[in-house]
């Protein structure tokens, strides 16, 4: 629908342009350019999305009407033209400042809350949001699962292939983790190759299913610059309130459980291999 409206507006503008070009010898270049300018201003007004640029639309509309009054020679019309022009420019500038400010705020928020490499929540953001959710779910007497994930021998990837390749591997794993959980759950990068997942309203059996799915996603081959990496991981789970009453206790319990599981695995399973 949006494409149809855009094509229609372009068609109308094209028609106006053709007609103006036809009458150019009659009206002269000055009037021709003024009418062309006016048509362009109304076209810009029509193309701007109303929801996002309502203030800018208003400013462009003021500029369009100032152009209308400029076509008349009466001094009062010139006064109205000046007022509308100044107001239109002012409104457009204000909208631009607000737009840039909003964009800057979003960028600053991303820097403060997101891990720049994986796009996941950073440690501070994950812990802060998880703490808030835990209090809310505790009041509702709902269970919570905290999952602590550690990649197996990821240091070998950095040592043998360089940190640039290692960063790309982490980026892929971050996307897989994000796709493995619901949007209502939290997933963050807690350290170099350590990740945390906060699952709402999940008991131990449900948490185990999530962990199995996550570990299988991580284990899928990752291709970086023609090299295939098979990265494995270990995970520990802690359930609120059985394993801890606070977020710190839950993370500590999940961390210990992860290392217990890691100690039971053979070296072949733990090794990250490059083919």
From TrEMBL:
The source's domain of life comes to Bacteria
Segments forming a coiled coil: none
Looking up Pfam families in the UniProt record yields: GGDEF
Keyword annotations for this protein, in alphabetical order, are: Membrane, Transmembrane, Transmembrane helix
All residue ranges annotated as the GGDEF domain in the record? 142-274
Q: Which SMART domains match?
A: GGDEF
NCBIfam families (alphabetical)? GGDEF (TIGR00254)
PANTHER family from the xrefs? DIGUANYLATE CYCLASE DGCT-RELATED, GGDEF DOMAIN-CONTAINING PROTEIN
User: Which protein is depicted?
Assistant: Diguanylate cyclase
Its taxonomic path starts at: Bacteria, Thermotogati, Thermotogota, Thermotogae, Thermotogales
